[in-house]
Amino acid sequence: MNGFKKNKILFFAIAFSTLFISCKKEAAPEAKPLEIAVVKVAQQDVKLESEFTGQTFGQSDIQINPRVDGVIESLNFREGEIVTKGTLLYTIDPLPYQAKLNEAEGKLAEIEARMAKTKSDYDMMVPLAKMNAVSQRELIAAKSAYNASQASLKATKANLENARIELGYCRITAPISGLIGISKVRVGDYVRPGAVSVLNTISDLGDVRVRFTMSEQEFLRIFREISKKNSSLVGAGKSVSLLLSDGSVYPETGKISFADRQIDPTTGAVTFEAAFANPDRLLRPGQFVKAKVVTDVRKNSIIIPQRSVIEMQGVFQVYVVDNNNKVDMKIIQVGPAYKDSYIVTDGLTANDKVAFGGTSLLKAGSVITPKITEWTPGKTEN
């Protein structure tokens, strides 16, 4: 009997312990609220940029053309290097032009001798004519011969000067200082003068020109905006930034130099040109770039990070955090994108705070632990 009581007491002790443990499990503490990154809505002036495809040109791109025909005798430069103004670039075989010069010099000597004789004859005829020793006809003939020899002398001197110029054209020098390209001819090639006969091109890379086109509609909109009194686009719209082909931003800012006088009727676009400093010679003629121009300025715009926005079938929503750390989903109206942010046109105020990340874990009415995160448009850290 005593053994039975002991077993009964042991049974109740084990059952009580099991019940106590199960109750303890059911009374587990509640989970802590989610810690979510939260940002304050920003309000600031926003400069909106438009991108236009453009191409680079040297400050001066000078083509080297032969001015006389002949055989290329030498190349006196290294392709792809900087040359200075006056540097000898090419020589054309000078022998034919030296021969023409020698012939012109001989002709000049002959004409000078002839003129000396006709002058002497005329000078002798003048006093004889006064004494009626010779007829007026003979005097006039002598004077005509002298005048003709003077005219021949002028023509011969002109031919001589032309021969000297042509001989000088056999030495082709750099018209400007700049970067010279790959030669289109080699030693032994025969060249002729003319616009289509290009030996090389030199580009002055001190400043680089960028030409880009803008649609007629965009041009008209910007023109009307700039024409308004106290327009905020007047100064901002003249500066241009560049995106290179690798996506990097060119460190120098350019300024619009001019717009073409007309709109191209075939494309409906107007051409602009902007000038950029090129101290490191990073820009070369012929590069394709994207020119970014400020085409709109929005005053006191409400902006939020794009990653805070949930888009579903064209509807934009954000989770707004109130003073009690409770989140509520709001539908907003967004305007243009600005860097990695959106301009919000309706639905938010400058005093609101929105969830920055972890929105997939949230639902309306949730209470969170906000982690205030600093952000700047275009410089948001992950």
TrEMBL record:
Keywords: Signal. One of its GO terms (molecular function) is transmembrane transporter activity. Residues 62-197 form the Multidrug resistance protein MdtA-like barrel-sandwich hybrid domain. Residues 101-169 form the Multidrug resistance protein MdtA-like alpha-helical hairpin domain. It comes from the Bacteria. Residues 208-295 form the Multidrug resistance protein MdtA-like beta-barrel domain. One of its GO terms (cellular component) is cell envelope. Gene3D superfamilies: 2.40.30.170, 2.40.420.20, 2.40.50.100, Helix hairpin bin. Coiled coil: none annotated. Residues 1-27 form the signal peptide. Residues 300-358 form the Multidrug resistance protein MdtA-like C-terminal permuted SH3 domain. Pfam families: Beta-barrel_RND, BSH_RND, HH_MFP_RND, RND-MFP_C. It is found in: Cell envelope. SUPFAM superfamilies: HlyD-like secretion proteins. One of its GO terms (biological process) is response to antibiotic. Belongs to the membrane fusion protein (MFP) (TC 8.A.1) family. This is Membrane fusion protein (Multidrug efflux system).
